[in-house]
Write a structure and sequence with these properties.
491 residues, 11 strands
Length: 491
């Protein structure tokens, strides 16, 4: 049996029944990586197999001793390459951090280690999480397992592709404007962006600090609930971390959705968005009707969310990336007549084109004479977008919409058109501005490519969000199909 194809909850049962050992599972995952990684290019770093096997051996010893293990114990995982791992390279897929080895673990890494998960690799991404296709990596582009000529989405494209290709059982990504949900839609995985503050950002190399959030990319909704339960919770090292107690998310997955009020934002549908997937998502919403889906809801400031986001995110990036100058850590250009020349040459070589573009945009928006006209106005728009969600959630428990405005596009199709690339996030960005949670779940296929349904919840309403997603997943039945790799379709 190919255990690497299984979900976390299935593998947990296999492990406690001793039908497979953690070492056997780990070896299968590494063999799978060896088989398909040359096609997918999802990983920028593969953890030494001997080290992973040592961790798996400890798990087997605990099971043999009769210890109770958590659902994540012994489960192979991969992490997006902007999540710090002690003494293991963390590069943000950027040349400027090509040799950076953090002296500490991110809070989520500590939590997963406590849960017993086994790290197998770090995933490719758009450099510093700036992109929607994983074509902006400083190293190489990742392929979509469903069609190797297409992108997996971004910026967490490597994390989504790795799960779709069964190179790991689960992964973590980061979501600043849709970077977990959009690649999950493109790759046919489940991707959850938690409420801002539910998961600590300590150890996440920042892109835009008021928008970034870490979340799981998994094979089904139950797995997303299990991972979220493991990584959520207060962290005193993160001043934005919520002190709310962490619910038992898996216990909320009863399969029942009746009584929930589900709204459909008008602005997320219609001409002008290029929604190849609209028909499929529309059918999903009709299906939701038997569970209580309601009429369309007006969210009038949605159209302003995209420009507001790119001003706010770029401004924060301009500030956050100022630390990468060749002095403190990371790459340093050896030539230069003086310190300023060294700065210029370091950043010119170390940063890619998209990162430079956003730094320049953010610096311009924050500059004297333009701050009020651009950045301050964008913050006001952000407040209006949040108020749209507040009003909607007075009437509805959840909102439903497409995750992406189009199907996974071909490599190079949008590479020379930054504005078209930015539009890839038009349906996910408002959620980050409002700080609310959202999840993408597979809702079918268009032209043999996966399509994601996006469910949006109230702040800290992950229990309801996961409950509804689980009910839809069970009713729709899209979770069992796998991409055709090595000439084999697994069903």
């Amino acid at each position: 049996m190919s255990f690497y194809q299984k979900t976390i909850h299935e593998l947990h049962e296999f492990l406690i029944r001793k039908e497979i050992s953690a070492q056997e599972l780990c070896a299968q995952v590494y063999k799978r990586i060896e088989e398909v990684e040359n096609q997918i290019k999802a990983l920028v770093l593969i953890v030494d197999q001997n080290k992973a096997m040592e961790e798996a051996q400890k798990v087997d010893a605990r099971i043999a001793a009769g210890e109770t293990i958590s659902p994540l114990t012994g489960i192979p995982m991969v992490l997006k390459d902007n999540i710090c791992t002690k003494d293991i390279k963390t590069t943000c897929s950027s040349r400027i951090l090509a040799e950076f080895r953090p002296p500490y673990d991110a809070h989520v890494v500590e939590k997963l280690a406590q849960a017993g998960a086994v790290l197998c690799g770090k995933t490719n991404m758009d450099e510093f999480a700036m992109g929607s296709s994983t074509e902006n990596s400083g190293y190489f582009s990742t392929k979509n397992p469903w069609d190797l000529n297409r992108v997996p989405g971004g910026s967490s494209g490597g994390s989504a592709a790795a799960i779709a290709a069964d190179e790991s059982v689960f992964s973590l990504g980061s979501d600043t404007g849709g970077s977990i949900r959009q690649p999950s839609s493109f790759c046919g995985t489940v991707g959850l962006k938690p409420t801002y503050g539910l998961v600590s950002r300590y150890g996440l190399i920042a892109y835009a600090s008021s928008l970034d959030q870490i979340g799981p990319i998994t094979k089904d909704v139950m797995d997303a609930a299990l991972v979220l339960k493991a990584i959520a919770g207060h962290d005193k090292k993160d001043s934005t971390s919520s002190t709310m107690s962490v619910p038992d998310y898996p216990a909320a997955l009863t399969g029942e959705m009746r009584g929930l009020r589900v709204g459909v934002p008008r602005e997320y549908f219609g001409p002008g968005l290029g929604l190849r997937s609209e028909g499929m998502c529309g059918k999903s919403h009709q299906d939701d009707g038997k569970y209580g889906a309601q009429v369309a809801e007006d969210m009038p400031h949605t159209e302003y969310a995209l420009p507001a986001y790119y001003l706010i995110a770029s401004a924060e990036a301009s500030s956050n990336l100022a630390r990468f100058d060749g002095v403190r850590y990371g790459f340093r250009a050896q030539e230069g007549e003086d310190v300023v020349s060294m700065f210029q040459k370091t950043r010119s070589f170390g940063f890619g084109k998209e990162v430079k573009r956003r730094i320049m945009l953010g610096t311009y928006a924050l500059s004297s004479g333009y701050y009020d006209a651009y950045y301050l106005k964008a913050l006001k728009v952000r407040t209006l977008v949040k108020q749209d969600f507040d009003r909607a959630f007075e009437k509805f428990d959840l909102l439903a919409a497409p995750t992406a405005s189009h199907l996974a596009f071909r490599h190079g199709e949008k590479a020379d058109n930054p504005l078209a690339m930015y539009l890839s996030d038009v349906l996910t960005i408002p959620i980050n501005l409002a700080g609310v949670p959202a999840i993408s779940v597979p809702c079918g296929f268009v032209r043999d490519l996966p399509v994601g349904l996006q469910l949006i919840g109230k702040p800290f309403g992950e229990e309801t969000l996961l409950q509804a997603s689980f009910a839809y997943e069970k009713a729709a039945g899209w979770g069992n199909l796998k991409p055709n790799l090595k000439g084999v379709t697994v069903k």
